[in-house]
Amino acid sequence: MYQNKVTLIGFLGSNPEVRSNNNRSFTTLSLATKSSYKKDDKYISHTEWHRCVVFGKLSEFAKTLTKGAHIQVEGELRSREYDSKKTDTKQRIWEIRVNSILKLDRAEKSVPEDQEYEDVSQEDTAA
């Protein structure tokens, strides 16, 4: 049995980029995850950046996300090679081929907090 499944939870570092290759449109996401560890009684924080590639109908949803969005992605880890024009050598890149996205941002309140407070205070004075 084989399994190649990745689940990441993090924040988008930039707005999604819509690209096309061979008449096929896709969206790329730059996702940041953080971890920390303790060294000499100090916490050391590390941010890891992940390139996520989204195809198909899910790509349409992915392009509506914005920088700073808190999301969970699931997919498989893939590597591919390309010819670098800068170094004139083959380069290997690792990316997540996404098959599900869950937006973790909290929904905005329908009534501003100030408005809620005013409504409550008016009810208290009426009683």
| Beta fraction | over 45%
What value does the Rg take, in angstroms?
21 Å
* Number of distinct helices: 2
Overall pLDDT level: 87
Bulk shape: globular
What are the secondary-structure elements, in order, as H or E?
EEEEHEEH
How many beta-strand segments?
A: 6
Q: pLDDT below 50 for ≥5 consecutive residues: which ranges?
A: 114-127
Largest sheet: 5 strands, mixed, barrel
Largest beta sheet: what is the strand line-up? 1-3-4-6-5
Distance between the termini: 68 Å
Helix vs. strand class: alpha+beta
Helix content: 10-25%
Could you please describe the fold and organization of this structure?
The chain is an alpha+beta fold. The chain has helices at 56-62, 113-126; strands spanning 6-12, 17-21, 24-39, 42-55, 70-83, 90-103. Strand 2 (17-21) and strand 3 (24-39) form a beta hairpin. Helices cover 17% and strands 55% of the residues. Strands 1-3-4-6-5 form a 5-stranded mixed β-barrel.
Brief digest:
The protein is built from 2 helices and 6 strands; from the N terminus they run ββββαββα. The chain has 127 residues and is α+β, with helices and mostly antiparallel strands. A hairpin with a 6-residue loop joins strand 5 (70-83) and strand 6.
